[in-house]
Specification:
Elements (H helix, E strand, L loop, with lengths): L16 E3 L10 E6 L9 H15 L8 E4 L3 H13 L3 E6 L4 H9 L3 E5 L8 H18 L2 E2 L9 H14 L6 E5 L4 H13 L4 E7 L34 E5 L1 H15 L5 H17 L4 E6 L7 H4 L5
Parallel strand pairs: 2-10, 3-4, 3-6, 4-5, 7-8, 7-10, 8-9
Antiparallel strand pairs: 1-2
Helix pairs in contact: 1-2, 1-5, 2-3, 5-6, 7-8
Length: 312
């Protein structure tokens, strides 16, 4: 019998890698999906939330009896809520009605206190992102809380270096490209750095909403892909990281997410749908011998209301 884990936080990471069977490119290239829905809250953000809190504990920014504040579209907030619940830190979250109600409910259940900002018709925009950040800054200043500040926090990169090491080990080094959508840019940047430590020539593909393709030089806009597309070039973004930027629309991302559920039995959010579309495009470019890894960012159980009008 294996040794029991001391807390639920010990189960973060070490997720499986699964090859898509039916949603495959016509040229026979292989697409592998890293199942980050296997993390405790059903999201890859568990990795970065734990890394940010433990780094702050280690250097004294977060002391015993302290509290935490963050702005979030949902998944980071749920993950921080889990970590703070286990470690005993009060958590104040700034979020919005633009994001999945399931995520907001999950945060509350885990004990977080929420301030919910009103959005522009349920859409993600640059103004909403900046309003959330400013509200979190004010709360941190007034309460003396530790502000994780995910848009600027480099402590989370170490979590994605570990993710890259998992991918490298699981593929036995047979990986030609890595595809990931961009929110704070930390997961793309950290995973790319980690993979390129193993082999420099692995291709890195960034994904952003076509309605707000600012990384590609387009105008800011509004979209409904949870967790990505802040509406401006985020601080952790570096132009020299990706070999290519793919633009995917909200509608196409949602359609692919539903295909994944119906054809592969993988129920994920729209950011995962966007990832798979971009991975398919890259597979066509690289040819039949290629192996491409992308991320199942979270479980679709976080988005049941969003999918409710399009029954499975």
């Amino acid at each position: 019998m294996g040794q029991a884990q001391s807390t639920i936080l010990d189960s973060i990471g070490k997720t499986r890698l699964l090859a898509l069977r039916r949603i495959t490119p016509s040229n026979g290239a292989r697409i592998l999906l890293k199942l980050e829905n296997e993390n405790p809250t059903g999201s890859m953000k568990d990795r970065m939330a734990l890394a940010m809190i433990e780094a702050a504990e280690a250097d004294g920014r977060l002391a015993p009896g302290g509290s935490v504040v963050e702005y979030t579209g949902g998944s980071t907030g749920v993950s921080l809520s889990l970590v703070c619940a286990v470690k005993g830190y009060p958590l104040h979250i700034v979020t919005s009605d633009a994001f999945a109600r399931e995520k907001l409910d999950h945060m509350r259940i885990l004990g977080a206190r929420l301030r919910v900002l009103t959005s522009d018709s349920g859409r993600m925009t640059e103004k909403l992102t900046r309003d959330m950040i400013e509200a979190a800054r004010i709360i941190a200043s007034e309460t003396g809380s530790f502000w994780t500040d995910q848009m600027n926090n480099r402590d989370q990169l170490a979590a994605y270096h570990k993710l890259a090491d998992e991918i490298w080990s699981q593929t036995e080094g047979r990986i030609d490209a890595f595809v990931q959508s961009v929110g704070t840019a930390a997961s793309l940047r950290g995973t790319a750095e980690g993979l390129r430590r193993h082999r420099e020539k692995i291709r890195i593909i960034a994904v952003e909403p076509s309605e707000s393709a600012v990384l590609s030089g387009g105008p800011t806009g509004a979209h409904k892909i949870d967790g990505i597309g802040a509406g401006y070039v985020v601080p952790l973004w570096q132009d020299d990281i990706p070999d290519r930027i793919e633009k995917v629309s909200t509608e196409d991302a949602k359609d692919m997410a539903l295909r994944l559920a119906r054809e592969e039995g993988l129920f994920a959010g729209t950011s995962t749908g966007a990832n798979v579309i971009a991975a398919m495009r890259e597979a066509e470019r690289l040819g039949p011998d290629a192996r491409i890894v992308t991320i199942m960012c979270d479980t679709g159980m976080k988005y049941l209301r969003a999918y409710g009008t399009d029954p499975l």
